[in-house]
Backbone:
């Protein structure tokens, strides 16, 4: 893995916009979780599509849901029942911003090509925001285009991890302050 710090320019705007859209998406997902009594922050998803929710160690299947193959506590809408169809409409309206699209926007070169369909795919890129700076985690064979974006600087993994720990500490502190 290669790590980067994004401090200015178009790359920072793209990353900050992505982080904002992701926060908004997870807030909507948490609302749906609370609506159905599921565990906020725990979903079954495939890429950017939410497929199911987690209900903890419940012994009974919630009404309108069916057990998921994902594992214990995960359920997907039962699309054959009326309650399940209502739930499915709520779940189908949820999506998570695509990190593959962000990788393309940042100029990451395609990782592989599907010769049958002629499409190319980028590896996903990790992104986090802390104190107005974005940090990227990319595969070494699929880095962002630093010649196109001036605000991207390669950093050591230790700087990435320090920023991640500081971000988590700030999140925990904010959550503690919100409950008092």
Residues:
């Amino acid at each position: 893995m290669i790590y980067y710090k994004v401090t200015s320019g178009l790359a920072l705007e793209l990353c900050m916009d992505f982080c904002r859209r992701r926060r908004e998406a997870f807030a909507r997902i948490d609302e749906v979780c609370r609506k159905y009594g599921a565990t906020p922050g725990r979903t079954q998803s495939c890429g950017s599509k939410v497929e199911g929710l987690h209900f903890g160690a419940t012994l009974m299947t919630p009404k309108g849901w069916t057990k998921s193959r994902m594992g214990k506590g995960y359920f997907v809408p039962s699309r054959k029942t009326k309650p399940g169809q209502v739930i499915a409409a709520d779940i189908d309206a949820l999506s998570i911003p695509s990190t593959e699209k962000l990788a393309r926007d940042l100029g990451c070169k395609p990782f592989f090509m599907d010769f049958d369909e002629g499409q190319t795919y980028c590896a996903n890129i990790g992104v986090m925001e802390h104190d107005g700076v974005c940090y990227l985690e990319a595969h070494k064979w699929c880095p962002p285009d630093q010649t196109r974006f001036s605000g991207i600087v390669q950093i050591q993994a230790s700087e990435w991890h320090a920023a991640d720990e500081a971000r988590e500490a700030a999140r925990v502190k904010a959550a503690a302050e919100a409950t008092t």
